[in-house]
Amino acid sequence: MRLSLWNCAICAALIATSAQAGQEVGDYTGLPQDLAAAATAYDLAQFKSNRPELERLLADDYTLAGSSGKNQTKAEYIADAVAPGSRTTYVAITQQVRKVWPNGAVLGGMVDAKGFNRGKAYAIRARFVDIWAKRDGRWQLIFTQVNDAP
Fold it and tell me: Residues in domain DUF4440 (predicted)?
């Protein structure tokens, strides 16, 4: 099954050992405090379909590279993320990866997620990687790669 770009986007930055929408956000223990705050805010923005937060946390040059082989821009991703009937109901992250340097970070892992894409139920398993950059003193997500997993 190929993931739609919307399904890929749902996985994008939900870095946690497990989370349920509206109840928990990612566990960012050990990350720099400002990066952990940005990643947590991004988790919540996705769960709540919060357009202003997504606008703030995604860099203007953000790209989502999904397993369909198509790329999605910041504007395209946000339009999908806030579409009526789209929400995540369950996320579990395993095989977590965290690499941080002074002005950049890679956060990723294996994700199992369930939810609704424009009213249609979905369940996915994918490997993802998010690349964060610290620009002008604040962390923003600049790139996400998501691939189907068996």
Answer: 36-141
Residue 97 belongs to domain with CATH number:
3.10.450.50
Helices within the chain (DSSP H only): 5-11, 33-48, 51-57, 74-81
Specify the number of domains making up the chain: 1
pLDDT in tens, the chain (150 residues): 444 544 445 444 443 333 333 334 456 788 999 999 999 898 888 878 899 999 999 999 999 998 888 999 999 999 988 999 988 888 888 888 999 999 999 999 998 989 888 899 999 999 999 999 999 999 999 999 999 998
pTM of the model: 0.81
